[in-house]
Amino acid sequence: MNSSTSSGAPPRLHRSLGVVDGVALAASSTAATTSVGIGMGALAATVGLHAPAILLVAFLPILGIATAYARLNRSEPNMGSGYVWVGKSIGPWLGFLTGWVTLVGTVIFMAYTSAVTGSVVLQFANKAGLHELLGIGLDPNSTALSTVLGLGVLAAVTVTAVTGVRHATRFQTWLLVFEYAVLLVFCGWAIVTGEHAFDWSWFDPFAIGDGTAFAQGLVLAVFFFWGWDAAFSVTEETKDTRDVGRGGFIALFTMLAIFLYGSVAFQREFSLTELIEQGPQGLTYLGEQLASEPWATLPLLALMCSAVASLQSSVIPTARGLHAMGRDRTMGPLWTRISPRYGSPAAGTVAVMAIAAVVALLALAIPKLNEMILAAVNSIGLIVALYYGLTALACAVRFRSDLRTAPGQAVRSVLAPGLSGIALLCIGGYLGHSYFTMSDHFELSPDNGWFMLAVPSSVVASGLVMAAWAKYRRRSPYFEKRGFSLAAPESTR
Q1: Alpha carbons 212 and 198: distance in angstroms, whole number
Q2: Count of alpha carbons within 13 Å of 286, Cβ hemisphere only?
């Protein structure tokens, strides 16, 4: 793919996005419908009927992290976000690690979500009366068929991401409108007609009792909110960089409202036993309980739209994060190529899709990899806590002089980010210790504590290896001890 224009000037990212595009990208990446639809059972299994409480508690540090992102973005808008900010404020090794764990966690999520998306599409086909096509049985429980179909969906959304992020965000906006309308109607229906009485104790975090359950629930709730920061990956493609922060905050508060609304609705309609038993089928089961066909299929369709949007919104920030790393020569030149036609990192976007596809396909060749991917997804919460925490601390370190010069500003630039970052890192450390002590042997199983801890540990270890390669082999200026010179964003060259 050519990386230069006919005039010899390097192509640049197109600045065409506004606040609505940022909201669409952040909301799609967070995938509220998917989180509510398949995650409420897991949350119930961890904290019982106190999902609303743990979601509210998790929102507090997430709000502090969002404040840090917005403040850092105003100071230095860069698609590398935490990778750049942590590298400059705390140190290049931790900065590279921040970027690396973000990218690897997202790729793992894409590989897993591809198969989930394929399974949801097959479920919808069955609901529509299509059980066989070209002699092939359309079984939603077929891992091979679900994976292949999901990769087809991944390839399709990658095409829209390549042709320009504005086209992608417009597509995501329409998906969001539909899925939120369905979610609001069915959850509202459940709140009104549910047989289980509303209880204010659902919002009491102190009623959880068990410290390990609280930590596990908190990390899982943080994973629910994960994705709002995708808006900051397109800061160099936004007309006004302040729109990025606005979009992120709007999406974040919208997610909080939807999560609380959904959790109360599920607990009004289902008993704790039903919540846990239904697990990933929670939203489709809700539709079947409340409505007859064809209306009962709408929640499944909304879930499919959410999964598709989530896949697309994962490709976009991952490619841009790698582009920022490529500019600093911490990663290879492939990631720096900008399409002259579309003004997007097209080559990197396709490469990210290919890597996620390889990981997904390996699940078909290695019997235990399906469980490994599931465990990895369960462990992503620890990875998210790590890079969110480091980015928040970077904000507190960078603007620490505000404590003397601007005490009012310091609450938003130092205190809130610093306390939020420390809280997430402490919770992650506590949960990591719990994983280590919950098992006495290693086993490739999502229920094995040593394996659950090994997944994020392996991601961190591989990040340190890649950082060493970038420093000593690539001789990246990112690692220079004095005033290391990060490449200027394309838009400012």
Answers
A1: 26
A2: 38
